Amino acid sequence: MLVIPIKQGENIERALKRYKRKFDKTGTRRALQGRKQFLKPSVQNRAKVQKAQYVQLLRDQEAV
Description:
By secondary structure, this protein is mostly helical. The protein has helices spanning about 10-25, 30-35, 40-64. InterPro entries: Ribosomal_bS21 (IPR001911), Ribosomal_bS21_sf (IPR038380).
């Protein structure tokens, strides 16, 4: 569990924003989403390859 202390004079919206940012950075959200639905290893690998191809395409476009 993540504990975010509220600073003196800080409003709750700001503290909540810090909590969400820290929650995303720790990878907890991704882990929860991954356990929500089972994906076959072949589907996971295919998605990883597609993401790598997309990132490479973006990098190639930047270089031009």
